[in-house]
Specification:
- The complex is a heterodimer of chains A (about 800) and B (about 220).
- By secondary structure, chain A is of the alpha+beta class.
- Chain A is about 65% helix and about 10% strand.
- Chain A is built from 29 helices and 13 strands.
- In chain A, a hairpin with a 2-residue loop joins strand 4 and strand 5.
- The longest helix of chain A is centred in the N-terminal third of the chain and has 35 residues.
- The radius of gyration of chain A is 35 Å and the shape is elongated.
- Chain B has about 220 residues and is α+β, with helices and mostly antiparallel strands.
- Chain B has five helices and eleven strands, in the order H-H-E-E-E-E-E-E-H-H-E-E-H-E-E-E.
- In chain B, strand 7 and strand 8 form a beta hairpin.
- In chain B, helix 3 packs antiparallel against helix 4.
- Chain B is globular and about 45 Å long.
- Chain B starts with a helix and ends in a 20-residue tail after the last strand.
- The chains are: A alpha+beta (about 800), B alpha+beta (about 220).
- At the A-B interface, helix 6, helix 7 and strand 4 of A face strand 4 and helix 3 of B.
């Protein structure tokens, strides 16, 4: 038997060596390449693959906003705000080694609206102009005179001979009003608020904003210059907004949490080991096993997935709590006897249980891989890899080492570890079963009546108040349009999209009048449909552009000579077919329009209408017609829907995982009663859910994922109790130590500032404690105790 | 000899006159300060104006007349009387339009960028804020304290798209303002009868969005 075991162990040793080399290589290459960490919650969710339109929209917004930083220096004195912006801009560019590029306030590459639209001017009219042309020529002429003498006319680009009624200038002004809230105070863009002047700087991040190195560098550069400006110009406030600041904050929080979770877990483990084994050797080896598992998981996951998610790393830190179990079981078994017949004997006596524990944990995590959530697949792969590697290290390395001068664990510790078992043994088996049933039914009852589930994304991610305030201030100052809620228009042709837009924008105008909406921006404001443009042209032709019209009278009054009047009428006729389309004019060139114009997606054309200050969503919904290609897309609601679906999906997977585990247990122990081992994790799960219900804490997706770990841990404890004999108490000690380490690591997670991590930690902390308390119940399932060497027929 | 004396006298008078001119003409920086201080010293000025516009492609200029009220701390009220009645108040952060006694306010939400620039440039001219003007223009100073000329040539593409140059002349007050546009239009404004006043009339307070009680 021992010969076979040594042979298999050699194979495993080769595998271990290979993994160690692979880990070293992958770690080295990822460190030299630069490690990138994803902190966006949406990365955890499936892509909207079912709808390519939503995918196109997501990509548009991603490219438009993700690598952009908006900074405002705000002060009552414009000169101070400008001085601060000047220092900020030069510091950011000089210190960032090309990482940040400040956009020029005026982009000279952008097409001049006037030049782009000049030849289309007789086809473009505002709503008010159309009314005046058809109904009120007196007011039309009065407006033209006023425009002629107003100071504002000095900014008119078109000459009066081309635009005598100032219609085109007025049209351009209406576009600018839609487009801009800022003015230009060289060399900066300025937003004027009642008591404040905000100087705006827009910077592009030239490298991946998810890279930790990039985030750290940018954060440091900002900290330096902000401190310097604050000391010299105390009245200036610096407001900054951008995805990178959210990512940096999340990364910094997670980094801090990983550090303290790891330190406290390891400190707890050290104390527990010293109390139990009074030797450094088991401690050092256990830490090596855990460290090897973690590093291998990190290296392999970083290779498989291009961006590791921050949640993977935080949850990965909890691996310490589980992977230490293999070492604990080995050393409690080894230290339980003065001497062993063979160096592999301690391993043989636990190999079945730890391998079964590993199998059930892998199955638990394996079901997470099935969930179509990219982030959680990472968590699953990370955890499975880490656990397998830690197990491999323990199984291969420990039996090959000599442990001299072993001292039995202190009696008080063994007594303490047996306490839950004594409690269960105090009562009759029948009473114990009744007790278990009562806890099970009681928690199930509370769970069914009091526990609520929530798919609100805000319960999962909570940026700091400072970041939220900054984002809000920038959004208000720049009158930014809502990036999460907009109207999507689809149709078979470009022109039908524009026509539908025009119909919708008329209704939106009414909503603005009723204060249900602040403003909107649509492609058709810049590029009206051909039908609308032809109507505009016809309107001008019918009412103004003919001899003996209000226009010709006005031109004569201005001093226009007859041949010039005729020339103007000729120009009008010559441009009769110069209609504007999204592709022939400014459409394709302008940044702002390219965000709204989605073009051809699959077999249809689509566009977005951006919205601002939505005060009445119901009123907005009333003007949409889903069946007719006009719908309100709410990205937050969509995220909520996906989260809800995933939670439902995860709960289904949990039930499947329990069923699979039950089948594995029945096959392994060849007894139907063995399926009852799952009673421990099921009851712990119900207790945790019931407690959340009683404390009025809604159960989120991440609580649900924690239930998988409760299954894994609870089953581990149950298997060891089930396999251990009444006389061998090493399993109880190992279980107590394991529960202690798990509670330490998961308990720390519960204190996390990231709600989703905290949810996960809370659920596991409660579940783990109840697993420990309830686990001895499984000894009631025995009719005949297993012997010490039950595992001789184990996996080897 | 008497002839020589006369020649010498004339020569000395010429030299002294030239020296006088040299002494009287201040340096460029000095002139800038003088003009700026003169304009800044006028906290409340009322007057009339005649505006003449020469439009590209039109044979004869068109003109308008009206009155203005400049209040350093509140803004510029500009009222066209002929050929039609219309008024505008340019304030530090907003523009108010007036029509036959009605007030229509064009505030931040609907004022476009070009309106904001014009407001800023116009107020900088009346306020004598030459530093602000230097942000937009290359500024040249000529003349002396009793007859000065300031020429503004746009230094930024945003402004040079529409403006070729601006010229200001003045003495104690701004006397003329001429604006040349890139589209060929020209505007010439003469300020007549500019005079300092103690306080605006009660009925003028509303032009600066003030109640008559807040006006003092």
């Amino acid at each position: 038997v021992y010969h076979n075991i040594e042979k298999y162990s050699s194979y495993l040793a080769i595998a271990l060596g290979f993994i160690a080399l692979l880990t070293a290589y992958l770690l080295f290459s990822s460190v030299t390449r630069g490690i990138t960490i994803d902190t966006d919650l949406r990365a955890l969710l499936p892509e909207a693959q079912s709808d390519s339109l939503e995918k196109v929209i997501d990509e548009k917004f991603h490219t438009q906003f993700n690598n952009k930083i908006i900074i405002a220096t705000s002060s009552p004195e414009l000169s101070q705000a400008k001085a601060a912006a000047d220092r900020l801009a030069s510091h950011l560019e000089s210190q960032s080694d090309g990482l940040l590029r400040i956009q020029p306030a005026i982009n000279s590459e952008l097409p001049n609206l006037f030049e782009s639209l000049k030849d289309h001017r007789f086809h473009l009219l505002t709503h008010r102009q159309k009314e005046l042309i058809s109904q009120d020529h007196d007011l039309l002429i009065e407006d033209a005179w006023r425009a002629l003498f107003s100071f504002e006319s000095i900014a008119h680009t078109s000459a009066i001979k081309d635009d005598p009624l100032n219609l085109f200038n007025d049209y351009l002004k209406s576009l600018n009003t839609v487009n801009q809230n800022f003015s230009y105070s060289p060399p900066f863009l300025v937003v004027e608020e009642d008591d404040l002047n905000l100087v705006i700087l827009i910077a592009d991040v030239s490298q991946n904003a998810l890279s930790l190195r990039v985030q750290e560098k940018i954060t440091t550069i900002f900290e330096e210059i902000e401190a310097s400006i604050q000391s010299d110009l105390p009245d200036v406030r610096i407001i900054k907004s951008g995805m990178i600041f959210h990512a940096a904050e999340a990364a910094a929080t997670a980094k801090k949490e990983i550090t303290y979770i790891t330190i406290i877990s390891i400190l707890g483990i050290i104390i527990l080991y010293i109390l139990s084994f009074r030797s450094l050797m088991p401690l050092v080896l256990s830490l090596l096993s855990v460290g090897f598992g973690w590093l291998s998981a990190f290296a392999i996951c970083n290779y498989i997935f291009s961006n590791l998610h921050i949640i993977t790393l935080v949850f990965g830190a909890t691996l310490i709590g589980i992977s230490i179990d293999y070492s604990l079981h080995y050393f409690t078994k080894l230290y339980n006897k003065e001497s062993w017949n063979h160096r592999f004997q301690p391993l043989i006596s636990i190999i079945s249980a730890i391998t079964l524990g590993l199998t059930t944990s892998v199955l638990g995590y394996g079901s997470l891989i099935l969930a179509p959530l990219p982030g959680l697949s990472q968590v699953a792969v990370f955890s499975i890899t880490g656990l397998i590697c830690s197990w491999l290290f323990a199984v291969v390395v420990y039996p090959r080492l000599e442990f001299k001068h072993r001292i039995m664990p202190p009696q008080w510790l063994i007594t303490l570890s047996l306490l839950p078992q004594y409690c269960w043994q105090c009562v009759q088996p029948r009473v114990a079963s009744m007790l278990m049933l009562a806890v099970f039914l009681g928690s199930a009852g509370i769970f069914l009546t009091a526990t609520s589930f929530s798919d609100n994304p805000r319960l999962l991610h909570k940026p700091s108040q400072e970041l939220l305030n900054n984002d809000r201030a920038i959004q208000q100052a720049l009158k930014q349009y809502n990036a999460n809620q907009f109207i999507v228009i689809t149709a078979n042709t470009e022109q039908k999209v524009l026509q539908k837009e025009e119909a919708v924008t008329k209704k939106l105008d009414l909503l603005i009048e009723q204060a249900d909406l602040g403003a909107y921006k649509a492609v058709s404001q810049y590029v009206p449909s051909v039908k609308e443009q032809k109507n505009n042209y016809q309107l001008l032709k019918t009412h103004l552009y003919h001899s003996e019209s209000t226009l010709t009278n006005y031109l004569q009054e201005l001093g226009y000579e007859q041949d010039r009047i005729e020339q103007h009428l000729f120009d009008f006729s010559a441009l009769s077919n110069n209609v504007l389309t999204p592709n022939n004019g400014l459409g394709a060139k302008m940044d702002q329009l390219s965000l709204m114009w989605l073009g051809k997606v699959d077999n249809r054309y689509a566009s977005l209408i951006l919205l601002r200050d939505i005060n009445n969503t119901k009123a907005l919904l009333n003007i949409t017609e889903n069946g007719k290609g006009i719908f309100l897309l709410n990205k937050t609601e969509r995220l909520q829907k996906v989260l809800g679906e995933q939670q439902y999906y995860a709960l289904k997977l949990l039930v499947i995982a329990y069923l699979i585990v039950m089948v594995v247990l029945v096959i392994r122990y060849r007894s139907l009663k063995a399926a009852g081992l799952v009673l421990v994790p099921i009851t712990s799960t119900l207790v945790a859910l019931a407690l959340f219900g009683m404390l009025d804490i809604p159960v989120t997706l991440f609580h649900t994922f924690a239930l998988f770990l409760i299954l894994g841990l609870g089953l581990d404890y149950s298997i060891f109790i089930y396999e251990s004999s009444n006389t061998d108490h090493s399993a109880n000690l190992a279980i107590m130590l394991s529960a202690g380490t798990s509670c330490l690591s998961f308990g720390m997670l519960a204190l996390s500032q990231t709600p989703m991590v905290s949810n996960f930690g809370c659920a596991i902390l409660i579940g783990s404690l109840f697993n420990l308390i309830l686990a001895p119940f499984v000894s009631q399932l025995h009719t005949k105790k297993q012997s010490d060497n039950v595992s001789d027929s184990g996996i080897f | 000899m008497p002839q020589h004396k006369n020649v010498l006298c004339i020569f000395f008078i010429f030299i002294l006159g030239s020296l006088g001119n040299v002494i009287a003409e201040p340096s460029k920086d000095n002139l800038k300060n003088i003009i700026s201080n003169k304009l800044k010293s006028n906290s409340l000025v009322a007057g009339e104006f005649i505006q003449e516009k020469t439009l590209s492609g039109f044979p004869r200029p068109i003109s308008s007349t009206g009155q203005f009220l400049y209040w350093r701390t509140h803004g510029l009220y500009w009222e066209t009387v002929k050929p039609f009645a219309h008024a505008t108040t340019f304030m530090a952060k907003k523009i108010l339009h007036w029509k036959e006694g009605e007030r229509r306010k064009v505030n931040q939400k609907s004022a476009d960028a070009s309106q904001k620039h014009i407001r800023r440039i116009l107020l900088a001219i009346f306020n004598g804020d030459l530093t602000e003007l230097e942000d937009y223009f290359d500024v040249q100073w000529e003349g002396h304290d009793s007859n000065w000329l300031v020429q503004l040539v746009p230094s930024h593409s945003m402004v040079s798209k529409t403006l070729s140059n601006i010229k200001l002349t003045g003495n104690e007050y701004l006397e003329t303002l001429s604006i040349a546009n890139t589209n060929g239009d020209k505007t010439f404004i003469s300020f007549i009868n500019s005079r300092p006043i103690e306080a605006p009339r009660k009925d003028q307070c509303k032009f600066f969005a003030l109640s008559s009680n807040d006006c003092d």
